[in-house]
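User: Could you write out the 3D structure of this protein bound to nicotinamide-adenine-dinucleotide? I've included everything you need below.
Assistant: Certainly. Input first, then the structure.
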Amino acid sequence: MFRLDNKVAVVTGGASGIGLEISRSFAKQGATVHIFELNMDQAEREADLIIAAGGQAYIHKVDVSKQAQVRKAIDKINQVQAIDILVNNAGIAHIGTAETTTEEDLDKIYNINIKGVYNCIHCVIPHFKKNGGGSIINLASVAATVAVPDRFAYSMAKGAVYTMTMQVAKDFVKENIRCNSISPARIHTPFVDGFIASKYPGKEAEVFQQLSETQPIGRMGKPAEVAAMAVYLASDEAAFLTGTDYLIDGGFVKLNTP
Ligand code: NAD
């Protein structure tokens, strides 16, 4: 079950954290993986490791916030292979309230976390239609549906990803295009280590512990736990699933009662 043999997948931000684990898991299940990244050194290293383990991986220097770059890469892949799966994983963090978030920060979050997702969907849909369908998996967050302190711009963006997922699923259901999102709570990745180090220097261990305890299960999630859901959503076993958001959150949303 859950094999992805003969499937071709694009994973944005696929060389770090959750995206990396999705790239590895997809390749292990038989898919050919195309990683869209800014960090090409890391992408090259990780793709080499996937290939050494018997998988198929290619890397593309693509900034998802730039539609021309996204279009060029997607069209190039489709000249050789039909894309079956798009994982919109690339995203950046931001801390701030509506009062402390600057216009520049808001624009940056919009361009990468919202427009980046739209750019990839916009450019892949014509190919999916021509090829008889496809599966889109978006990385949203628990912040899309519950208030998380100090995450104004980030939550706004993830809320947009959550609603974009339903909208795309609705508009293309007749074209055999499925679109779902995954909403993790805190997952231990470089993304988390990076913002703890920059925002709470000297208090890293204490903040790490606090963030772990916000999940009722008492720890952060693992990238592999998110990747397992992505494998399922991309697989033929999930053919009846579309327009839905899946929490992977150690009880964060439903069990954190006051
Ligand atoms: P990460 O920082 O470890 O990896 C993100 C990758 O995206 C990096 O390799 C980076 O180079 C790439 N990237 C960033 N901007 C890009 C751009 N414009 N174009 C192409 N690539 C770009 O992050 P992560 O923790 O693995 O998070 C992945 C996704 O999951 C994000 O969308 C994030 O919002 C979401 N998420 C993460 C958590 C968490 O706790 N880690 C929780 C909920 C949701």
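Residues 103-131 form the longest helix (29 residues).
User: Perfect, thank you.
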